[in-house]
Amino acid sequence: MNDKKLVQNFKSYINVSCTSNGEKNGSVHDLKPKLLNGELITGAAHSVVMLTPLCEAERGRFGALFVTNFKLSFVPLDSTANDEYGQRNHTVGVHDVPLTCVGALWLTDGGAARRRRLLPRADIPAKLKGLQIVCKNMKVLSFNFANSPLGAGRKVVMALLHHAFPKRHDLLFAFEYREPYYPTLPSDMNMFQRPADWKRELERCECPHWRITCINGTSDAFMLTAGETLIVPSSVLDYNLMESARHFRSGRVPIWVWGRPEGAALLRSGELLPTELSATAESVLLEQVRRSHPKLTPPYVIYLCGNSFTNNSSAVTLPPLSALNASYKKLADLCTPTTLSDFWIKDSQYYSMLESSRWLRHVAACLTFADDAAKHISDNVTVVLQEGDGVDYCAVVSSLTQLLLDPHYRSISGFQSLIQKEWLALGHPFCDRFGLPRPGMSKEDLEKAPPSQVAPVFLLFLDCVWQLQSQFPAAFQFTETYLTTLWDGSHNHLFDTFLFNCPKDRELAVARLQNFVQRPIWDWAEQFGERDLALFYNPLYVGHRTNAINEQRLSMSSVCSRRSSGEVARLEPCTSVAGAELWAQCYERWLAPLDAPAAGRVQYYWHNCRVRAQIQKLNAKLTSLSILNDRTNGGEDPPPSPPPTLTRFYPFSLKPSDNVSTSLDAMQVSLIDATQLLDSQSLLNAPD
Q: Residue 47 — pLDDT band, cuts 50, 70, 90?
């Protein structure tokens, strides 16, 4: 009777296929993760079951779980040919999670239903039944340690707590990665690291009434969170800037970031400090900005978070960073159900939960401000953006405004240059906003310093860009797959792009740590092959015909043909919250019930790639006059191959079969030029 009860109560987490393949592949103790140069294993547990997410029966994959100084890696015992996503990353495997992408840890009873939040310095039981990890990219992983040796799960959790939440900035893996780096960045990409880079931008925009000052790179620097190079009105002396900076938060006086030959410019500024002379200092600087306009037109000031100095606020304002972070947490909670029943409950309350998060309202507000700024600049009025320290919402709205006005920034290299300028060179605090330890501070310093404000400001910007892509399908060279990959890359600190708070922190790290290698995320060939890179390019994009350097000048651009009438051709987006959509590929890609075959925008992507390949083939025939030979000889083209069965979230979902990659490879070859990959992407703009 006892034996019968044991058989009835026994629950196996190992599939039949796992057992049979396990006999062929060898012992689970022989499994090892793929390690990068400088990567070390710090914790391991064998005989672990990775539970299938959102599955009624608690089934899973049998294998080994490892923690290194870079990632959490599960190595299954039953590896198969189709056990990979459509996108193949050379540095992060299918079942790997970079440690800086780990969001929250939960102790479970071996399943996914009952769980308890695990906080740092909490007591960890020696007999750990299960572990659930909610990643910052909204992927949920659950592991069962029932078959593991006693204490193995505890070692994994302790290694995770130590390495995923480091106390010092130089403990991040980017400082341990020893792989040699040979840069292959696009030749037309501007990194905005030297004065010559800013001069190049000033010449491209053809703005003669502004000058470059490098005072911020000297001992008299007043804007400590920005780079050494600033662009200011030609009539302003450096001494006046230093005096005025005392009246602005973080010394953020109005500085030039973009302009047009007719005189209008875009500037960023911090808020005024509540001093007696603040208003006077602002008036003096704005007068110099007015004099920089050929028509002496007064600038238009946009208060992104309301005008705290005069207590006047507009109808639309952007929320405090704490409110933005709370909004994002509600969105993440909606997109990270842990059980199938939890998924269906949230599905039944989907729209009410999405509305209560207010995330789309914040997205629409950013687009509203950007559209307002673009409208004034197109009317040849200078715009000054003002907010807090001038490093958060100023970066969002300024970047969006330039995307609406300047077609150069809608190309891939231009978009990456835009991020280098607005987010890196002008000092967006990525460490503080992503919750990383501040550079150059010891553990004791961190405990004394006030807590930094975590907020997904950069992720908000990427969401806004995706909204613009959806509304203007042929305006951008890059795709939503590119944006999603960049969204993931912001949580992968193998690269130094999003690793520091400001340029000065990066310079100090390079000077202090001689072995540190600067490795920008923009060198995508370090991570992906040609087939994956082709997914970054939009087949509908038409702007590549005018991408020569001398044709990128704003006065030469064909899209600015309305200059003679005093206007700049610009994108005019829908700024209503009713026109905003949830970025499904980014937020919902790990929800298996939603990843339906032959659905989603990726089907339009495939169709557009196919049509473009046919057009290129016909053009080649016309060029060689072979079409006449075909008529004479009666030759006919072979019938087109049937479309591959792509799932809704391709390439961020498992491959259903091998014919998908084969069909896509053949299709994307036509999108690759002899010198550069050309366009390919989803249409992104028709409803699912």
A: very high
How much helix, strand and coil, in percent to the nearest 5, is found in the chain?
Answer: 40, 15, 45
Count helices and strands in the chain by DSSP H and E runs: 22, 14
Q: Is the pLDDT of residue 339 over 80?
A: yes
DSSP result, 73-121: EEEESS--TT-SBSS--SSS-TTEEEGGGEEEEEEESSSSSSEEEEPTT
pLDDT value of residue 671: 45
Q: What is the DSSP letter of 452?
A: P
Q: Say which CATH number the domain at 113 has.
A: 2.30.29.30
Question: Shortest CA distance to 28 belongs to which of 79, 91, 70, 72?
Answer: 79
Counted domains in the chain: 2
Rounded to 5 degrees, φ, ψ at 185 are: -70, 155
In this structure, the chain runs to a length of 688
639 secondary structure, DSSP code = P
- Is the peptide bond prior to 456 cis by the omega test (within 30 degrees of 0)? no
Is there a domain that residue 30 lies in? Answer: yes
Other beta carbons within 10 angstroms of residue 52's beta carbon come to 17
Q: Which domain holds residue 152?
A: 2-165
Q: Does the pTM of the predicted model rise above 0.85?
A: yes
The enclosing H or E element of 142 equals: strand 140-144
Using the 8-state DSSP alphabet, how is residue 437 labeled?
P
Beta-carbon contacts of 320 under 8 Å, excluding residues fewer than 6 positions away, are 305
Whether 270 is in a domain gets the answer no
* Residue 338 belongs to some domain of the structure: no
* Boundary-marking domain end, from 165, 199, 231: 165
- Can you spell out the DSSP letters for 592-608? GGG--BT-STHHHHHHH
Type and span of the H or E element at 383: strand 383-386
Is beta strand 383-386 parallel, antiparallel or unpaired with respect to 265-269? Answer: parallel
Cβ atoms < 10 Å from Cβ of 8: 7
Dist CA 68 CA 79 (whole Å) = 21
Answer whether residue 68 shows pLDDT above 90.
yes
Q: What is the pLDDT of residue 659?
A: 40
Identify the helix (H) or strand (E) that includes residue 141: strand 140-144
> Is pLDDT of 556 > 60?
no
Cα separation, 584 vs 605, in Å, equals: 15
- Please name the helix (run of DSSP H) or strand (run of DSSP E) that holds residue 144, with its range, or none: strand 140-144
* Cβ atoms < 10 Å from Cβ of 197: 18
What DSSP assignment string belongs to 275-328?
A: -TTHHHHHHHHHHHHHHTSTT-PPPEEEETT-BTTTTB--S--PPPHHHHHHHH
What was the pLDDT predicted at 64?
Answer: 96
Asked if residue 669 is part of any domain, the answer here is yes
Q: How far is CA 254 from CA 134, 190, 392, 525, in A?
A: 41, 22, 15, 37
Which of 165, 190, 209 marks a domain boundary? Answer: 165
Q: How confident is the model at residue 23 (pLDDT cuts 50, 70, 90)?
A: very low
Using CA atoms, how far apart are residues 432 and 167, in angstroms rounded to an integer?
A: 13
